[in-house]
Amino acid sequence: MLKIAYHPIYKHPLPEGHRFPMEKYELLPQQLLYEGTCNEENFFAPEIVGDEAVFRAHIPEYVANLKAGAIPPREMRKVGFPWSPALVERELRIAQGTILGCEYALKYGVAMNIAGGTHHAYSDRGEAFCMLNDQAIGAHDLLHRGLAERILILDLDVHQGNGTAEIFADVPEVFTFSMHGKANYPFRKETSDWDIPLEKGTGDQEYLTILEEALNTLVEKVASDFVFYLCGVDIVGTDKLGTLDLSVAGCLQRDEMVLRWCQQNNLPVQCSMGGGYSPEIRIIVEAHANTFRCAQRLFF
User: Fold this and answer.
1) Active-site positions?
2) How would you label 19-50 residue by residue, b for 16+ Cβ within 10 Å and e otherwise?
3) pLDDT tens string 210-224
């Protein structure tokens, strides 16, 4: 059964006019239920993650300041969200959703988190809508519990996974791969184990060709036993924060390629949604929903 982490707090209210489309977190599960792709049994509501799991990826002092609302204003401006207790709770539940998603992926082959993909969160700070790095927390948890030995983080958001690269810079058990817009934020990139920066306007055919070649290489290069897939849909050409030019259909082909690759290589995969900022919310929801439809079709 496809298991999906979702909690109502994922749609945390933001000040009017904020550019981050929080409503997608409410509309996406509604759409999946309405069309019959999923039913209520597919969804689980994560609890709050424990400190021990968070501290494996993040410095305790940073986590304590985050919980207490003691992050300096200048640092919170880099995050882009106004601090609130509910916002912190949201981050903690997302991280636990990813941890539980890993367990479900080991059991069923794939699991999803409606939110997450917070790859700009560093070990000691947050930025760009990310405060706690859910997939980094999940990866460290798998290693700590001996549930995986060699992990691949496959980051296909339009933005480089800079926080993820920093967290795992000295962790040989985790291989970080980021294929992103060269001209996109962050403008000062970190060094992943393998980065593929793409030129402005890269479209379906070129993108998918490069990705297919990369996946073929990763099978031999990494020899992983677990995959984290960050499946942002901000690669779509309509995205207001992206520089690539994929169609919604091309984005779906990307998901099919990745998930089929995981399935064929017997690699359990945990998926976190990542970014999506097209002006029309229907495009964001449709592109994200395609990932869930694809997982349901391929694995179940």
Assistant:
1) 120
2) eebbebbebbbebbeeeebbeeebbbebeebe
3) 999 999 999 988 999
For residues 117 and 203, give the distance between their C-alpha atoms in angstroms, rounded to a whole number: 23
User: What is the C-alpha separation between 76 and 131, in angstroms, rounded?
Assistant: 9
* Residue found by looking up tokens 């880099």 in the block: 78
- For the segment 29-50, what is each residue's pLDDT rounded down to a tens digit? 999 999 999 999 999 999 999 9
How far does the chain reach from its first CA to its final CA, in angstroms? 7
Closest by alpha carbon to 184, among 209, 160, 151? 160
Query: Is residue 46 classed as helix, strand or coil in its secondary structure?
Result: coil
| 3-state secondary structure at position 254 | helix
In the CATH scheme, what is the homologous superfamily, with its name and number, of domain 3-299?
Answer: Histone deacetylase domain (3.40.800.20)
> Rounded CA gap, 255 and 257, in Å?
5
**Can you give the pTM of this predicted structure?**
0.96
